[in-house]
Design goal:
Layout lengths: L1 H13 L4 H55 L12 E5 L3 E6 L4 E11 L5 E3 L6 E9 L2 E4 L12 E3 L13 H6 L4 E11 L2 E10 L4 E9 L11 E11 L9 H4 L1 E6 L4 E3 L6 E5 L3 E7 L3 E11 L2 E7 L6 E12 L5 E12 L2 H5 L17 H18 L3 H32 L1 H10 L5 H15 L7 H20 L19 E9 L3 E5 H20 L8 H16 L4 H24 L2 H12 L7 H12 L11
């Protein structure tokens, strides 16, 4: 080990470089560093040169694009460039974001509401919307959404007013008695002093209505005089606000429009649709299930085009709504167009107060059942809601109220069923006496028995038919009631949509991918009620009718599983009350007394009805003997 150490020491001493070699190596290293530094400097210079050339090219391109745009816009070319800035105009109910690019409504937030997942409720978003006034100027097509307007308004305008109770929000009558402030924001494109295009937005405190005015002053020299109309284009992608459901928001999102001094119509709600409206239009509503963005003319729009493009498979958006309305142009030095926006809920009372048929956007059912909702259900519902905040209790009391109103019909129907049960032995005798080859005679004998007994065979059906309009009215009322939105009761977090107690890992056709407990309970109680009813009419039911009676609850299980849980809860309560009424009436009805009355009726002289006379005449023509009832 010592020898090895000595060898290494001697070897290192012998091979140590000289001073000249060390200097040479240092000089060589410095030279390499200088070469690398020079190479890096040249590379940076090249990069800077390329970046400078790109910047010059981009600048030249931007300038060229700007010159082209200015050339395309003619007199309005000076407003083709600028920086987009946003201004807000808000009251206690809504917050509008306005953009100086186009002087347009960029987005609208309803401050009192949230989406189904708790986010701010935005009716439409600026980057997915368009709002533009289009016209011809100097043989150029001008679209105002390409112009940068100027404004002297602050970035944020907040409108103050008195304290508002929940029931007075958006109430114009309350506003008239307790006026708040009103503010406006103006956007202007001024070609020269006294020559400008101006958009003015005015919002009052505690109101969903926004006044929108377009003023054209001194532009008749640059705006083509041979165009009879200017076109106002408004379109946006409709964002989802509610939980996705084919029987919820997807079903009720559509475009409505009101013909001037005429009825309200709409596009096809189940598919993409468009319509060219060649007659005067009062308003166009971009409607969702619970909210609407509606453009209203002070007078009317001469014509309009509307289009709805559905997005059935999109999780964020429901459809693309587009409208184009015509504004009459007379090439006068001063042209003014007055309009309004309604940005707010589809609340029946709120919409009706404007007396513009806006409430027709709330789907209250067919014309035959709509009056029941408007004049009976809604007033009672609102009365209860004024005193009770829990919507589950409100629906319970509403159900009890309706069942009390319908009880006389229910009682009459049950009495008719009791009479039919008393007559069952005699009906069986007639069926045995006349075989299937003697249907005419059997029918005549049955009618004679009914006549003698004083029993109306339709007595059990007619009262039920009289109840149908109210039952159908409720079918439309609950899914369209914004009052139920995000109101929970027991396990249902939101009575306006389905209550899922079990999410399935697969989708069942026509049923869905979840289990609604209220719908399940409704189905069970319907089957129980159906069984009680079939027992009451045993022997008098047409063949196959019993099977149909039990199939109906199963069908409704599939239909209502994705509907409003408030509707299923109402039907469940109605079934429970009906079952209770059935047992109550059974205890009140004395069938022996009914049988005695029927026997008494049989002893009375029976006057033949015209229908019975016709049956007998038909039987005689066929050579069948007729046994005329005699007085006993």
């Amino acid at each position: 080990m010592i020898l090895i150490f000595l060898v290494l020491v001697v070897f290192s001493v012998i091979n140590r470089p000289s001073k000249e070699q060390i200097e040479m190596m240092k000089h060589r290293q410095d030279s390499i560093q200088q070469v690398e530094a020079e190479r890096q400097r040249q590379l940076e210079q090249q990069t800077e040169t390329i970046a400078s050339e790109d910047l010059i090219a981009d600048t030249l391109l931007a300038e060229e694009v700007l010159r082209q745009k200015e050339s395309q816009l003619g007199a309005f070319g000076a407003f083709a460039s600028g920086e987009e800035k946003f201004h807000t105009l808000e009251n206690n109910l809504l917050k509008m974001t306005l953009s100086n690019k186009g002087g347009r409504v960029y987005s609208v937030e309803l401050k009192e509401y949230k989406t189904h997942d708790g986010k701010p409720l935005i009716l439409f978003e600026g980057d997915r919307s368009q709002f533009s006034l289009n016209f011809f100027s100097q043989n150029r097509n001008i679209q105002t959404d390409q112009l940068f307007f100027s404004t002297e308004s602050p970035e944020a305008v907040v409108i103050e007013g008195p304290e508002i109770r929940t029931g007075d929000k958006g109430d114009e009558k309350f506003n008239a008695e307790n006026p708040g402030n009103s503010e406006m924001i103006k956007f202007r494109v001024e070609l020269a002093p006294g020559s400008y295009l101006e958009h003015t937005y005015t919002l009052k405190y505690n109101s969903y209505m926004v006044d929108f005015d377009i003023a054209m002053l001194g532009l008749n020299s640059v705006v083509a005089a041979n165009q009879p109309y200017l076109n106002l284009v408004w379109s946006f992608d409709v964002p989802r606000q509610e939980r996705k459901s084919q029987y919820g928001e997807d079903r009720y999102t559509n475009i409505y429009y009101n013909y001037f001094e005429d009825d309200v119509d709409k596009l096809n709600p189940t598919k993409s649709d468009s319509e060219s409206l060649s007659t005067r239009i009062k308003w166009i509503g971009m409607k969702q299930l619970f909210f609407t963005s509606t453009l209203i003319a002070d007078e009317s729009f001469p014509a309009a085009q509307v289009q709805s493009t559905r997005m059935a498979d999109d999780d964020k958006y429901l459809a693309t709504f587009a409208s184009e309305v015509s504004l009459p142009y007379e090439a006068k030095p001063s042209e003014n167009y007055g309009m309004q926006f309604y940005f707010g809920p589809n609340h029946f009372h709120t919409l009706r107060q404007y007396k513009l048929n806006l409430e027709r956007q709330v789907n209250l059912g067919y014309s035959i059942v709509r009056p029941f909702n408007r004049y009976l259900i809604i007033p009672v519902f609102n009365f209860l809601r004024n005193y009770i905040s829990n919507m589950g209790i409100v629906i319970l009391l509403l159900t009890i109220f309706i069942k009390i109103i319908l009880f006389p019909f229910t009682y009459k129907s049950y009495m008719s069923q009791a009479k039919m049960r008393v007559l069952k032995p005699e009906m069986d005798e007639i069926n045995e006496k006349f075989g299937p080859d003697k249907q005419m005679e059997k029918q005549q004998a049955i009618m004679a028995l009914y006549k003698k007994a004083g029993v109306n065979p339709m007595g059990g059906c007619l009262p039920m038919l009289l109840q149908m309009p109210i039952l159908i009215a409720m079918f439309f009322f609950f899914p369209a009631s914004i009052e139920l939105r995000q109101q929970g009761f027991l396990w249902a977090n939101d009575l306006s949509t389905y209550d899922s107690i079990l999410d399935l890992p697969f989708n069942i056709p026509f049923y869905g991918d979840h289990v609604s407990l209220w719908c399940l309970l409704m189905t069970i109680t319907t089957i129980v009620s159906t069984r009680l009813n079939s027992q009451a009419t045993s022997g008098n039911t047409m063949p196959g009718m019993k099977t149909m009676m039990y199939m109906m609850p199963i069908m409704f299980l599939f239909i209502l599983n994705s509907y409003s849980s408030g509707l299923s809860y109402y039907y469940f309560l109605a079934n429970v009350i009906t079952i209770g009424q059935t047992y109550l009436v059974r205890g009140m009805v004395d069938e022996d007394k009914i049988r005695a009355q029927i026997q008494l009726n049989k002893k009375k002289t029976v006057a033949k009805s015209k229908f019975q006379q016709r049956l007998e005449q038909m039987a005689k023509e066929r050579g069948v003997s007729v046994n005329t009832p005699r007085r006993k």
